[in-house]
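Sequence and structure are kept together here, with a separate record for every protein. A complete record is shown below as an example:
=====
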Amino acid sequence: MDTLFEKQNAMLRATSMNITRSFMQQINWSAPMLCIRGARGVGKSTLLRQYIKQHFVPGSEEALYCSLDWVYFSQHTIIETAERFYKRGGKFLALDEVHKYENWSREIKEITEIYPDMKIVLSGSSMLSLLNGDADLSRRCRGYDMPGLSFREFLQFYKNIDIPVYTLENILQSPMSLAMEVNSKCRPIQYFHEYLKYGYYPFYLTNPIDYYTLIEQTINYVIDVELPQLRNINTANTRKIKALLNVLAQNVPYEVDISKLSSVTGLQRNTVLDYLNHLNDAKIINLLYSDITSVKKMQKPDKIFLDSPNLLYALATVPVKIGTVRECFTVNQLSHSHTIEYGKAQGDFRIDGKWTFEVGGENKSYSQIADIPDSYVLADDIETPHGNKIPLWMMGFLY
């Protein structure tokens, strides 16, 4: 146990507080058990350590951060660790990378029953399921999904420009208010196009030279390790999944042709659909449907995007089309707090079953959606709104 506290103290000393995500304030830390899920690289581990650093005095033994991929847990169980921690006055146990520990949910459930007054915070892959075969934690554990940086956070952390969060309703009803605030502090278009290439993952700040290489390594890890571990994917098929992703990266937004994907990858149709859903859960791609209320498990999506523009720039081997980047950004930023449907003939996207968005450049016409109620053009390369034409970058202030 002393070893764990020494390791935690060293890690806390090295944890910077320069970037503290507002996501931390969205979490109900008073809940008995929490689970923070997210794609690799979005900052889950840092968030846990920052919370401990903010709320416990240095050297306190009331809080303990552990990563379950540490060598320590090859010889010690979670239950044993929790017991020793509790007996030393422990109150807040943060267990990171829980999906790397076999039968983690069974032991966590037992801990909550033995020590109901000890708070437990779990962190792991975006594919982590609380509905587990060994122990269903869904009713006792509050889950949160952590996204990468928004354009607003990019300005805050990379450029020291602080703008508050705006709701989508705020933006659509009073877009000029946001435009005036942002334009008084910076030229948003310049920074926006920089964000589209480099701003989504916080690790750009620490290693900008290898940013795209790190993104590729992260994706390879998800496909080679996490998919076989968490979704029982045959390791012999991981190369085919990468081939599938490569096809998508060169063609997004992809008008889905499952037969073509099946032919290119050598996978059966249902297997392709399964793998697409797994990549969607892993936050590598976004699947869009034209009618989300009637989506069935084996129904093919209507359109596929990579999860963020940064992924697009990292993976594409052909010149990236700006139209694709714009739509990818729109889906990425809105999907964290809104329901998005593919619009087909009725605009590009339908949001929460209410608003219709058409996405394009500064000269994008409103005529295509003029007859649709609550419809808007999200236009790139403009700083201020004009009627129902709203700057695209404003969608980056939703969190």
About this structure: The chain has two domains: 2-146, 153-397. Residues 105 and 132 are 7 Å apart (CA to CA). The first helix runs from residue 2 to 14.
